[in-house]
Amino acid sequence: MTDLVEKTLHSKTIFEGKVIDLRVDTVELPNGETSTREIVKHPGAVAVIALTDEGKLVLVQQYRKPLEKLLFEIPAGKLDPGEALETCALRELEEETGYRCRSIEHVVSFYTSPGFSDELIHIYFTDTLIRGERHLDEDEFLENYEVDLQEALQLLKEKKIDDAKTVYAVQYLQMQQ
């Protein structure tokens, strides 16, 4: 088998932000040539597929500036430094929706865009919700919705759900039926 590994020759951080860092690496390719790779460093995130007692999927709708549009999404957020995955999932669920839960289970983890980012998102599931109060971040503006599977599929068809984690959530629920 051919060695496909790219050896890093030089690495330079060109931006350090609140959410991401951007690095440019010079790499040696398997054929001996060199190239550059622009890499987004991300702390990782969690998302929660949350079902109400009525079997409705809890969604948040928020404006996503990079896309210049409103999206319906499952509750999610980035990991704080040193934070446990389950702790983050429970925190984000309550902050964004006001729901707490009696139990939560890990479903899957996946890289969102491995061609340029190391962001790893961890998806959790719960159907043991307890209503509480939302605690949005000061720069966070969103609306809560609860939809059944057919409504979620319609939002998918209308491209109002088109981020990977929420598309995955809808397909996951479809497979559970």
From TrEMBL:
* GO MF annotations, alphabetized: metal ion binding; pyrophosphatase activity
Q: Which cofactor does it need?
A: Mg(2+)
**Annotated positions binding Mg(2+):** A76, E92, E96, E140
Any one of the GO CC terms: cytosol
List, for all copies, the residue spans of the domain called Nudix hydrolase: 40-169
Say which domain of life the source belongs to. Bacteria
PROSITE patterns tied to this protein: NUDIX (PS51462), NUDIX_BOX (PS00893)
One GO BP annotation of this record:
ribose phosphate metabolic process
Keyword Metal-binding belongs to the record: yes
Which segment of this protein is annotated as the motif Nudix box?
77-99
Q: What family name appears in the similarity comment?
A: Belongs to the Nudix hydrolase family.
Which NCBIfam families is this protein grouped with? nudix-type nucleoside diphosphatase, YffH/AdpP family (TIGR00052)
Q: How does it assemble?
A: Homodimer.
Query: What is the name attached to this protein's record?
Result: ADP-ribose pyrophosphatase
Query: Which organism is this protein's natural source?
Result: Pullulanibacillus pueri
